[in-house]
Amino acid sequence: MTPAGTARSHRESDISMTLTDPQPPAAVLPSSGTLRPVSAADVRITGGFWAQRQEVNATASLRHCLSWMERLGWTANFDRVARGEEAPSAGREFADSEIYKLLEALAWESARSGDAWVEETFRSLSARVVAAQQPDGYLNTRFGGPGQEPRYSDLEWGHELYCAGHLIQAAVARARTAGRDEFVEAAIRLADHICEAFGPGRIERVDGHPEIEPALAELYRVTGDRRYLEQARLFLQRRGTGTLDHGEIGPEYFQDDVPVRDADVLRGHAVRALYLSMGAVDVAVEDRDAELLGAVTRQWRNTVARRTYLTGGMGSRHEGESFGDDFELPSDRAYSETCAGVASVMLSHRLLLAEGRPEYADLIERTLFNVVATSPDAAGTSFFYVNPLQRNAPGTEAETDRPSPRAASSQRAHWFDVSCCPTNVARTLASLSGYVATTSDRGLQLQQYAEGTIDTRLASGDRVRIRVETDYPWSGTVTVAVEEAPGEDWTLALRVPAWARGRARIADATGAERVVEEALAEVPMSAGELATVRLELPLEPRLTLPDPRIDSLRSSVAVEAGPLVLCAESVDLPAGTSLRSVAVPADAAPAAMADGAELAGVHVHEGEDPWPYGPAEAAEPDREIRIPLIPYHRWAERGPSEMRVWLPRLPA
Amino acid sequence: MTPAGTARSHRESDISMTLTDPQPPAAVLPSSGTLRPVSAADVRITGGFWAQRQEVNATASLRHCLSWMERLGWTANFDRVARGEEAPSAGREFADSEIYKLLEALAWESARSGDAWVEETFRSLSARVVAAQQPDGYLNTRFGGPGQEPRYSDLEWGHELYCAGHLIQAAVARARTAGRDEFVEAAIRLADHICEAFGPGRIERVDGHPEIEPALAELYRVTGDRRYLEQARLFLQRRGTGTLDHGEIGPEYFQDDVPVRDADVLRGHAVRALYLSMGAVDVAVEDRDAELLGAVTRQWRNTVARRTYLTGGMGSRHEGESFGDDFELPSDRAYSETCAGVASVMLSHRLLLAEGRPEYADLIERTLFNVVATSPDAAGTSFFYVNPLQRNAPGTEAETDRPSPRAASSQRAHWFDVSCCPTNVARTLASLSGYVATTSDRGLQLQQYAEGTIDTRLASGDRVRIRVETDYPWSGTVTVAVEEAPGEDWTLALRVPAWARGRARIADATGAERVVEEALAEVPMSAGELATVRLELPLEPRLTLPDPRIDSLRSSVAVEAGPLVLCAESVDLPAGTSLRSVAVPADAAPAAMADGAELAGVHVHEGEDPWPYGPAEAAEPDREIRIPLIPYHRWAERGPSEMRVWLPRLPA
Fold first, then answer.
1. Is the CB of B651 less than 8 angstroms away from the CB of A648?
2. Which of B25, B372, B493, B575 is least surrounded by Cβ atoms within 10 Å, i.e. has the fewest?
3. Tell me, what's the ipTM?
4. What's the confidence (pLDDT) of residue B618?
């Protein structure tokens, strides 16, 4: 079994699935693809990095989000509409979507933990939403009511279909975890209304913010009603044909410059681009549209090669919260919105299922550990909205008693005026077990490493139960014990991240070890065999250099340890030392430290020239300095600080 | 006479001036300062670089601006208001200011050339403006009329006082060049209204966009009415105290975060920051307020040392059109708005007059040649709004038949939705002779080099007439012939830019040459002596390296020639070669070429990695390549192209 042969076998197999009711609670459930998702219900994350975050999410973040939305009147918007009252809507035009993302998180969490408060909160909150639905299915607290602008009068910025999409996604999660309830039925009525209002010959336009596209495709998967898939396809086909009024911001922002099928790279508003791509994959998979799927994989490939941060973060520009040009990846002005990280995970997961290629799971891991995990603090009640790789000035403490501007704070903030990120993190953590593994006809692939159990069926229908023991990412040892094995020969595959290939070692049931060069370490398993397999991933800190075309990173180095990007914070430097004045020698090599690393650096550049350009460089080191490095996801836990992922490297 | 002694003598002298009516047509006319402005009427630029641009401005740009504003209905706004009609205003909320900046340009141009069309256009256009004035002096086409929002109901974004400031500046130019006319009287009525409406105990707030501050200070200089100076001072004192509602954009954008007197560096929206600083200098000079003046010079110094591009451009961020952090100076995302360049010239000119330090004139020269001269095309009918130092993709041709988004075009555009830059360039070119020279008690200082004549009086009252012969910046030879000399000994001083010091040579009337190490080459002149002095400035192209704290420029080089920044354009590379794939060897040295230079470079980085970060740098040169360099101000004259000022330098 050669690696090449392995990859081919994944590409050639094509797993067809039957829609069932109730559906398995998978984060996304395509009806075909190279790999099949493992239901979130089949995976229990029982300890370690992600279990801790799921617990904090369940016990703190969900309540935190709800209490802010109650306090700011975003939930009361629904009550007001239900009563038919004329009053200004609280919050921004997309505030409804935050309630829906919280409902989605609650739906997943209720299924995960069975917590009574979570279930009761889902029921009561979803009932308030349903009560605001109009008789014809329309549901939005900001348009169409007394004293409000008419429905669909501002498709560019009104976010009506965006909000509807999030409602439908929440209902999809509910349908998959609990079956059809009143909320799911309301989502179906809303989807029916949208198909009516935006069908052929009606409003032949799109929403300024994609989201309805994957939502309708997923609702099709839940209901089997092809109208939703067709409407999703229509929205996709219309985008790129200029049905929006772009104003000064231009068509690229809305991905309305080029049809999805013709684009080569993600561009414009990053979250919009990623949500749109999710919808395109969903439609392509259901339509068996290889050209459309190929268009998205091409865009993913070019985006990952040229427009993605070391953290996995996407979106280089504050202006328009958008992707930049190729290799435009400034560390300090990185927008790298938390929501773009969430969306990137959802997109890559779809592509992983469709195509089976491990690089999608590699990017998911990188993004989960370095973007999604970076946003919330340890308490789960403060969040980063933007995730720059460098902070040039310590900044100030975040607001605690009122919403923070989304991109201004140097510290995690409790809530934002545009507060899309906290609820997006919440729904991701609550549904995280759905990303851990995949199955194929005769194989189970461990895509992400977390302590826990998987008890599922291969696509062939054979049951398999395994236990994963690991303290990843703090330890590189992953032990997989097969506790129940299929009745036929099968293959257990463990993803080996790109940075580990050639250095990872796998030991099979006999204890025989080998170095893994390939992206999936496949262990052939015999029918009924209850074996234990051990993967050793090399976590020692390593130097990483940038593509020389990235101007902002030229002659700089970063340090990574396993899946974690590390960073330096000025709070760890001698008092009064700025990270601006620190560099590392050409032969720098990181030393491992507890939960991080350390670089021997030098202090330079204390001069203050009246003009910063001249005939000579003035970069004389004046003293040696130790540079402690911590995991990037833990930065800003100790108050305002300068921070750098990339450190300048002195010439040899 | 030592250089140190010279500098001291400049700082210690303090020239007081008497307000006269009509005033000399100086671009700005402080009543005290180290140096005195030379009236624009006393300077004729007769040939060369700037004469050509003044001619194009007079014959093409002024008509171009007028015709676009007629076509878009911005001028007709005034006619509608004069008729008392209710109709929506054309253009953005600051459209009035464009008419006023055109009027200012026309006023200067009428005085410069005496052109009949220019004078007639000033009269007819100003009459339309005056006709729209309300009985109480208020004048704005967007507020306060039937069906419009009330006056001063949106100080943050309404731009009413900003527009008023530009009207007053136009009236100041008219008063100084032609005396008081109906338009000047209208400006005085408007200023009186503003003093009434915004005086103590009335609306104690400021405008979101500074401009009224320098305008009122200058109107005080024209009229002698201290109310205007007092109102300017009030506006300055209020800024930084939070009288504006900042919303999500925050107080820094409006310079409302810190009082002017307490700030250390320019920040927020660049044009706002610079206009505000102009007003602060004007008030400080009139009040003999050394602390306030010191605050602005401190901010100028820190801004020039840490927040200014090689071109002199200011404003690192598209978002908020704002300054960035210290050393945040990305080439590709440089905003470097043309208007910020114009404002920087006006601010530095004020500081030059106040303090006499040559670095202000150095920055004026750099900014005129590399920002102001870059904006218009050779025909004077297309303009850059933003002036990045790098363009990563060729982009597309600009719109020709409709206004372009301000920051989107890769090419100069005929007009913009926000079209502040064309009229700002026009008024600068029309008044440019005011920046050429200054005088002191017993000296004349040549601050900028252009072929022409200066016929003026020293501050002592002695007349001096000189002729300047030069083809600068294409030739470094500047010959100054004294054609009429004062009756007492005096000093002719020629500014030697920082890049020329130690290499420039000056020859006095006897032909005796010496190398100039200092910033002002002073030539003692005897009473009545009609001598000729010759300055030789070294224009051969030179390598420039960046401060290592500028991340985006690390290990990069630029080439300058005299005051000109040079750049590479991909249209000059072999077909299919991207500037992304070009670097220069560590020992690169530019060779002079006609109107530019050339670097021997190498072609690198053709690879396409799926992930742009890894354990090794892949920057192997694969072939040698010649990199032609042209003056930056001439880029994009040959269609869409990649462009770079800074080129990566390979390690030694």
1. no
2. B575
3. 0.93
4. 62
